[in-house]
Design brief:
The chain has a 3-stranded antiparallel sheet. It is built from 13 helices and 3 strands. It is mainly alpha-helical and about 250 residues long. The N and C termini lie far apart (about 50 Å). The relative contact order is 0.08. It folds into 3 domains: about 70 residues, Orthogonal Bundle (Multidrug-efflux Transporter Regulator, Chain: A, Domain 2), CATH 1.10.1660; about 60 residues; about 110 residues, Globin-like. A hairpin with a 5-residue loop joins β2 and β3.
């Protein structure tokens, strides 16, 4: 069977423009192009698109997705790996739902809250499967050890630093500062210093390539984008990272 680009866009809740962009990057080739110039996709292409969308859900940027696809030619094996991550993520979300539902029932029924049940599914290890999928088990082990080594005050300070950096990006955008301007590049310098606080445990000091990778991740994952005011904010930070990577690293 074959599907038109419009059909695939509708089925995947995306746009024809996005599919053409994936094609231009070599990620998703159409099975054929008709005499009318329309692109058509077969079952193999649908499997490829499913893999792309799953990797986007994991927060990978398009260049990184290209590397993953090139390195994992066995689609069935790769999808099995993705499935294991999705199953673990579903289990975690089910635990959170059950925990919150239980809290609501206790509140509405005037019952005593059970502290040992309220935080099931909310532990900091919730992203273990995702981190291991992206960067390997050793990366998770090192980052987890680094985080556990910090006191509560150090953890709060670390989070507060990033909150301040994110707020300064937002202020710069509202002031119509350019991503490559001095004011924004000074924020990036602080951001890089913050990222380097954990660098010895998470893969070494920030390089130009790693900084670009972070920028792609912020844009590609709504969870990260939310830290910077949404998609537009994440793209602003990504553009600032690219300039900093090209001129300061």
């Amino acid at each position: 069977m074959e599907w038109s680009i419009a059909d695939i866009a509708r089925l995947a809740s995306t746009t024809s423009r996005t599919l053409r962009h994936y094609g231009d990057l070599g990620l998703l080739a159409p099975s054929r192009i008709g005499s009318n110039g329309y692109r058509y996709y077969d079952e193999d292409a649908l499997v490829q698109l499913q893999r792309i969308l799953l990797l986007r859900e994991l927060g990978l940027g398009l260049p990184a997705i290209g590397e993953v696809l090139a390195g994992q030619s066995d689609s069935s094996l790769a999808l099995s790996s993705h499935l294991r991550w999705l199953e673990k993520e579903k289990e975690r979300l089910d635990r959170q739902i059950a925990s919150v539902e239980n809290t609501i029932r206790n509140l509405e029924g005037g019952k005593q809250l059970m502290a040992d049940q309220m935080f099931d599914g909310f532990d900091h290890t919730q992203y273990q499967a995702e981190v291991e999928q992206k960067w390997g088990a050793d990366a998770y082990r090192k980052s987890d050890a680094w985080w556990r080594s910090k006191s509560e005050d150090e953890r709060r300070a670390f989070k507060a630093q990033h909150t301040a950096i994110a707020a300064d990006y937002q202020s710069a955008r509202e002031a119509n500062e350019s991503a490559d301007g001095g004011a924004v590049q000074a924020i990036v310098a602080r951001h890089v210093d913050w990222l380097n606080l954990s660098a010895s445990f998470t893969g070494g000091p920030i390089t130009a390539a790693r900084l670009r990778g972070y920028g792609d991740m912020y844009v590609g994952d709504p969870r990260f984008a939310a830290n910077y005011g949404g998609q537009d904010g994440a793209e602003f930070v990504r553009d600032a990272f690219v300039y900093f990577a090209d001129h300061s690293l």
